[in-house]
Amino acid sequence: MTIASDSAVALPFDNSYARLPEHFYARLQPQPVSAPELIASNRPLAEYLGIDPHWLESADGIATIAGNHFPQGAEPIATAYAGHQFGGWNPQLGDGRALLIGELLASDGARFDLQLKGSGPTPWSRGGDGRSPLGPVLREYLVSEAMATLGVPTTRALAAVSTGEQVWREQSEPGAILARVASSHIRFGTFQYFAGRGDTAALELLVKHVSARHFPEIAGNENLALAMFEAVLERVAKLVAKWQLFGFIHGVMNTDNMLLCGETIDYGPCAFMEQFDINTVFSSIDRQGRYAYGAQPGIAHWNLSCLVQTLLPLLDPQAETAVQLAQAALDRFPVVFQDAYNSGMRQKLGLQDSRDGDDELFADLLAMMTKQELDFTLCFRRLTELAAPADSTLAVTELLQLGDECEPWLQRWQQRQREDSASEQQSEQMMLAANPVFIPRNHLIAEVIHAAQHNADLKPFQQLLAALARPFSYSPELVHFATPARPEQAVQQTFCGT
Ligand code: AMP
Ligand code: MG
């Protein structure tokens, strides 16, 4: 099959990354597939990006996402990057199953990468097929869109298509392609790739590119590399605070899976925690718990230390001064993280003021959850219900009760609420906006994937997607989507989406 080019359908691409030097990427075409069909399309996101949703769902749109059709203005590239995987250095990774087809400017002027994931082999496939099975595509679609709705910075899903071809993993599985959108796909590992080669000129170009693209407020700063790093640290610390506040476990926080723009990327082995336990790990390959829930802030800090090391030659001509600047910047992480986490926690508990003793209040709540084996999401939702007794749309009482053992903590919290300057109503509103009832629970995702894979039934996927689109609004007929896994349904392990 050949790739058709259609001049009638112009996605208004402006490809700034493809204007960087040729050794930043490889130019290549997606590999066509035999019989693409639409799985899902994200109409509001398409409209925001200036893409006609009807076109996206048309044969042309589907062929474009499938890589069978070459849109005008596209300049497909696979980008080069390196990374630390589980702490081990890998000097050359790169996009092995994804192609950046171009950048789009949204209605508000924001710039986004449009990437096809699963579009065929690239020079960085390292023996892999460059393809993606259907399961991981559905999983990424659901979880990334849920994260976006919850207000967690993330890559987005624009559309997904099935390919009509099988891919071989442990068994034969249907193949699919995800059209993914990100503010950019520039990774900590992109900087590491050039640092590993001693290519300071490339690092300098990258700093300029990233600063102009993501941090216009630092333009003209006399130490641009330092200002960029400080801005990245700020975003990443706030991002990971949000993960903690929603019980999200990323599962594969390798430096190639951390974006400079501070969006969550790579939904391979991720999972939302159900029963609270700080040591929770899902990823089948994370045997030592390196990326456990409670380890995530420390790992983000470590990853940032890898990033800042790549910038040392740009921070100061004197090596010693450069290291001092890097260390001082890096030391901000715990402060920024803790501030963001505490402010989020206050919101989850309906508190406006910051008071002495709040840290203990939060820690004791988590200790209580651990001891009582409480579901993280439902526990906060039950607290919301207690704070807003008149609101009949909450009703998780039947799913989770706080027993007598919880009384002492509840009384402390309620006393703290009375002393707080937020009114009862403000407190309710804060809690209602911070404590979802629907999260993409792992067993629900597994159900959806099973139905799609074995019965070609996408209805469960659409139903779950719809529930997750309104994560704060409960109604009793949706109880299935709010219910934690029964022991026999519980997903013990997740897998990298390869
Ligand atoms: P990930 O586990 O998604 O972070 O991927 C790590 C590296 O493996 C990246 O360079 C990917 O592009 C590459 N990779 C993963 N799966 C495949 C595949 N099926 N074919 C080619 N490369 C892959
Ligand atoms: Mg990755």
TrEMBL record:
UniProt: Mg(2+) binding residues: N257, D266
Cofactor(s) essential for the protein: Mg(2+); Mn(2+)
Annotated ATP binding sites: G94, G96, R97, K117, D129, G130, R180, R187, D266
Record key words, sorted: ATP-binding, Magnesium, Manganese, Metal-binding, Nucleotide-binding, Nucleotidyltransferase, Transferase
Catalyzed chemical reaction(s): L-histidyl-[protein] + UTP = N(tele)-(5'-uridylyl)-L-histidyl-[protein] + diphosphate; L-seryl-[protein] + ATP = 3-O-(5'-adenylyl)-L-seryl-[protein] + diphosphate; L-seryl-[protein] + UTP = O-(5'-uridylyl)-L-seryl-[protein] + diphosphate; L-tyrosyl-[protein] + UTP = O-(5'-uridylyl)-L-tyrosyl-[protein] + diphosphate
Enzyme active site: D256
EC number per UniProt: 2.7.7.-, 2.7.7.108
A Pfam match: SelO
Domain of life according to the entry: Bacteria
Function in brief: Nucleotidyltransferase involved in the post-translational modification of proteins. It can catalyze the addition of adenosine monophosphate (AMP) or uridine monophosphate (UMP) to a protein, resulting in modifications known as AMPylation and UMPylation.
Family: Belongs to the SELO family.
Cross-referenced PANTHER family: PROTEIN ADENYLYLTRANSFERASE SELO, MITOCHONDRIAL
Protein name (record): Protein nucleotidyltransferase YdiU
Gene this chain is encoded by: ydiU
